[in-house]
Amino acid sequence: MTSQDIDQRYLITEFKQFTSFDDVKMYLLKSILHTFEKVDKVTDVFLNNCFLLLCMLKMPTFSEQKEIPNTLGFQEGVET
After folding, report:
1. Which of 29, 45, 71, 76 maximizes the CB count within 10 A of its CB?
2. Residue 46 belongs to domain spanning
């Protein structure tokens, strides 16, 4: 099992309660602010939440997503 598998499983279990990216962003922001207020040291959870929030702020929402261009030149349905 790789760390990516663990991260994906964490995201699925942690965020399945949310219906939009905005909900997740607010949850992470509140978690980060709460950690700042209560804890005098930086924890792994705090850093993880900061990283996730930064990633999600850069991600387009579902309504903003457009078709992703095929920049690698692969053809759909063709196995290589």
Report:
1. 29
2. 3-56
